[in-house]
Structure formats: C-alpha cells, structure tokens
Amino acid sequence: VQLQASGGGLVQPGGSLRLSCAASGSIFRTNVMGWYRQAPGKQRELVASVSTGGTTNYADSVKGRFTISRDNTNAKNTVFLQMNSLKPEDTAVYYCSIFVLTDRYWGQGTLVTVSS
C-alpha cells in the first residue's frame, strides 16, 4: 500500500489549505483513512479520520475549522482535508494514513506552516 499526499504550504493565519492523499495498492474495501500531524517537539496526533462508510472523527482542536472527506468511487481511496481558519498552532507536518484490517500505512508527510 502506498500513500501520496499533496497540498501543504505556507499560509497566513485565518487562511485555508486543502490537503489530498491517494492510496494505492492492495486495499481491502473497508478501511479508515485519516490525517495526523506532528509539530516540532510534540508527539504525532490524530487530526481527523473517515471510514469508508463516512463516519468521521475530529480532534477537539480542529472541530468546526477542518473538514475531512473521501472519494471511494471507482475503487479510489482518496482522502481530503479542508483546513479553514488556520492558526499558527496548526503548523506541523501532516501525515496521511490508512488503516486496513490490522495494518496502518503512512504517507510521506506534507508541511503546513501558518505564519504571517
């Protein structure tokens, strides 16, 4: 299983960014895709996740500002993270992840920097 993420960058506080991640390989139809982030000196934390059935889960710190969605059409496994009202504390490397049966796979990470 491979994950290819894109969409990070530099944005001013209050701005928006959209992250995308496409999973490829042998992926069981039922899975959970999500985004994690790791800020300097901190542990990696869950930002948001979404199941193939559409059930979502968000960290309290991003509720109301971030929206996770996914595209399951035509056997795609693509997940998106729309990030609005970004704050400096959202600065981190964001990692895409997919959990399939008993295994978790990670993407390469994309840097999001929120700064004026």
What do these coordinates show?
With 116 residues, this protein is an all-beta fold. 0% of the residues lie in helices and 56% in strands. The protein is built from no helices and eleven strands. The strands form two sheets. Strands 2, 4, 5, 6, 9, 10 and 11 form a seven-stranded mixed beta sheet that branches. β7 and β8 form a beta hairpin. The protein is globular, with a radius of gyration of 14 Å. It starts with a strand and ends with a strand. The mean pLDDT is 94.
Indicate the topology:
Elements: E1 2-6, E2 9-11, E3 17-24, E4 31-38, E5 45-51, E6 56-58, E7 66-71, E8 77-83, E9 92-100, E10 103-106, E11 110-114
Parallel strand pairs: 2-11
Antiparallel strand pairs: 1-3, 3-8, 4-5, 4-9, 5-6, 7-8, 9-10, 9-11
Short description:
The chain is an all-beta fold and 116 residues long. The protein has no helices and 11 strands. The strands form 2 sheets. Strands 2, 4, 5, 6, 9, 10 and 11 form a 7-stranded mixed β-sheet that branches. Strands 1-3-8-7 form a 4-stranded antiparallel β-sheet, with no helix packed on it.
